[in-house]
Amino acid sequence: MSWDELLDHGDEPFALAFPPVCDVYPSLTLKATIVHACNNQEGALSDSLVDCKIARDTDTGHAQFAAYVTSKTVSHLNDAVQHFQLVLDQCLISHPDHATALTNLAYARLRGYICNDLEDIDTPTSLFREVLALRPQCHPDHPLSLYNLTEALTWRHNKKSTAADICESAKLYHELLPLCPEDTYLHSIASRGKWYESDEGIHLRRVVLELCPLDHQHRPGALDKLAQAVEARFDQHGTVDDLEMGIQLGREAMSLCPEGHTDRAYYLNNLAFSLRYRFDHQGKPNDLDEAISLYEEALRLRPVGHQYRDNSLDNLGGALIIRFNKCNDIDDITRAISLHREALTLRPPGHPCRDTTLHGLALTLDTRYDELHVIEDLNEAIDRYRESLRLKRHDHPERHLSLSNLSASLCSRFTQTRKNEDIEEAIHLCRESLVALSSLHPDRWFSYTRLQEAYLARYRILHDPADLSLAVENFRLASGHPTQGFPRRITEAIDWAHQAEVYQHESALEAYQMCFELFDSHVMTRSSIVTRREAATAFRGAQSLPVDAASCAIRRHNLRQAVELVEQGRGQQWSLASRLRTPLEDLKSACPQLAQKLLGLNKRLSHAQDSAGGADPAAADRAATEYRILTGQWDAAVAEIRDLQAFSRFLLPPSYEDLQAAARQGPVIILIASQYSCSAIIIPTSGEPRHIPLPSVTLTDLNNLKDRFARAIRHASIMGPKVPRNDLIVLLRTVWEEIMLPIVNVLEHVLKLKHGSRIWLCPTAAFTFIPLHAAHPFQTRADRSKEPCLEDLYICSYTPTLSALVRSRQMMKKRVTPSFVTIGQGQPGTGKGKALLAVDSELELVHKLVPATANRTTISGDAATRAGALKALEENTWVHLACHGKQDPTQPYNSHFVMRDEHLTLLDIMEKHIPHAEFAFLSACHTAVGDKETPDEVIHLAAGLQFSGFKSVIGTLWEVDDSVAKHVVKAFYENLFDGLKEGVMDCTKAAWALNRATHAVKTKVPLEQRMVFIHIGV
Question: What pTM does this model have?
Answer without folding.
Answer: 0.72
